[in-house]
Structure formats: C-alpha cells, structure tokens
Protein: Flavodoxin domain-containing protein
Amino acid sequence: MTGNTRDMADSVVEGLLEHFVAVEVKEAFDATRADLDVYDNLLFGVYTWGDGDLPDEFLDLYDDLGEMDLSGKRAAVFGCGDSSYRYFAVAGDILQERLENRGARVLQETVKSDGCPGRAELDACRRLGAAFAAFVREEAGAK
Structure:
C-alpha cells in the first residue's frame, strides 16, 4: 500500500544478490501455490494491517501455506507495522508460525520496521538477505 515493504524487499534482494543468490520477486497477490511448490527457498515480506492482521492481499497465500507440506524448504520473514497499534508488526510472526508449523526451516532472524524504513532498517534488510544466503548454503551443505 505505502511501498514500505517493497523498499524493505529491495534491500533484502540486494543482500541476496551480493552473495550470488538468484532471486525472483513476486507480489503476494500474484504468488500461487504452484510457485510455492517450485521453490526451495522462500522469503516473505509482509506488513501488518490494523491491529495485528495479515493484509487482505496475503490471505489466499496464507491459506495455501496452511495446506502445504513445506518440509525441506527454507524460509525467512520480514515486514513493517505501526507501533501506535496494540500489536506491532505481528503479521510476520503469524506467517513465521505458519511456515514452521508446516515444516519449513525458518531463519530465526527478521527485520521489523516501524512505518517507513530508514537507513538502519534498510541496512538490516540487506544483512537479512546475506544471512538468508548463508542459511541456504549451510542447509544445502548439511544434506
């Protein structure tokens, strides 16, 4: 809606590309269950709507995730919210819990921005991309 999550995603992508990880970016409402099946590594950027809800454009994808076996997949989550609400940026927590419950190995590192991400948050997102690249390589080496 505001572009905040997109700005964060762009920085995460920078971190991935700096570590030679190929990236395909999709908007939540354009992503399908078939997309989720194809990829072994999934990074989700999501903003929190209202008082702790997933945004409407994420609901179908969230439902699809609830029906999938995500064993063998690696994932990470980042997002933004508004600290003036009771629950700050919890959509990412909700999504992370779903991923873990469906069997994904989730990087236990995230970035949460309060509204418009500043330089510190964007740098943290770039580092998250780098950390996810290392996570993917580490997991692949363990097999």
User: Anything to note?
Assistant: The radius of gyration is 14 Å.
